[in-house]
Amino acid sequence: MSLILVRDLKKSYKIGSMEVPALNGVSFIIEEGEFVAIMGPSGSGKSTLMNLLGCLDRPTSGTYVLDSEDASKMNDSARAAIRNRKIGFVFQSFNLLPRMSALKNTLLPMMYANRRKDTAMAKDALNRVGLGKRINHTPMQLSGGEQQRVAIARALVNDPPLIFGDEPTGNLDTATGTEIMSIFQKLNDAGKTVIIVTHEPEIAQHAKRILRFRDGLLESDELVENRLTAVPKPRE
Ligand code: ADP
Ligand code: MG
Fold it and tell me: What's the CATH code of the domain at 107?
């Protein structure tokens, strides 16, 4: 069974009496261990798709099966539960809590999942993104790239099989974006399935497969040729 199975997935938003179509029927399969970049012009439905795949929203119609569970038919609490177990999120704007240390930010998903706070696991996640020596820094005391590393540590802390990023390098300069891609590649090499949205062809070239969207439809689905390997900058 595939990790992700999407069949004829549709989503439209209601604004007053108007229906705004965002996804018009897309189908694809993603296997465990893939590294997928989602591309397409602004408004093509990328974030809508990520919200559906991430179990943050439900489709208007169609099927979404995540790890053998039909998420399209779940109620809100079932979707929240599967989200906490299976998915780690990384956002363009990092979304860290400003007054909390890197360590406390990393511990947050455990609290959301009603699990005991496991400081050792949070420290381990911060070590994996190269921030083991910055665990008591607050976001303001960290660079943009370091803040995104904290966000990745936070996404890893419940050990989900899937990592999602919606434009995770969108607010970073090229060198820092490449560093972040080196972390995603390392996680993917270690077995995590990674799915990111990006505008930048060079960022997408670090993935193994590119899905291109246009007007709410899947326009192309290609394996990456001449894949780039991001070489991380030595640090600490
Ligand atoms: P992308 O991420 O590719 O830029 P989106 O998925 O955000 O595209 O948007 C796809 C379409 O759905 C756009 O026309 C957008 O205006 C519309 N849309 C997205 N989110 C909402 C929402 N919450 N309410 C109404 N329309 C939305
Ligand atoms: Mg978007």
Answer: 3.40.50.300
Does 71 reside within a domain? no
Q: Whose CA is nearest to atom 27 of ligand 1?
A: 13
Residue 235 within a domain: no
What residues make up the domain containing 181?
34-55+79-223
Does the beta carbon of 40 sit less than 6 angstroms from any atom of ligand 1?
yes
Cβ of 90 closer than 6 Å to ligand 1, yes or no, is: no
Please list the rounded mean pLDDT of every run of 10 residues in the chain (236 residues): 96 94 98 98 95 94 96 92 92 92 93 78 94 96 94 93 95 91 95 96 97 98 96 65
With H, G, I as helix, E, B as strand and everything else as coil, classify residue 208: coil
E strands, the chain, are 4-15, 18-30, 35-39, 61-66, 69-70, 87-91, 162-166, 193-197, 209-214, 217-223
165 beta partners: 90, 196
Assigned domain for 67 exists: no
CA distances from 138 to 94, 100, 105, 176, 205 (A): 13, 6, 9, 19, 32
φ, ψ for residue 185 (rounded to 5)? -65, -40
In total, how many domains does the chain have?
1
* Dist CA 61 CA 120 (whole Å): 42
- Nearest CA among 54, 34, 208 for reference residue 64: 54
Q: What DSSP state is assigned to residue 218?
A: E
Please say whether the beta carbons of 166 and 91 come within 8 A.
yes
Backbone angles phi, psi at 217, to 5 degrees: -125, 150
Verify whether ligand 1 is closer than 6 Å to residue 14 (CB atom). Answer: no
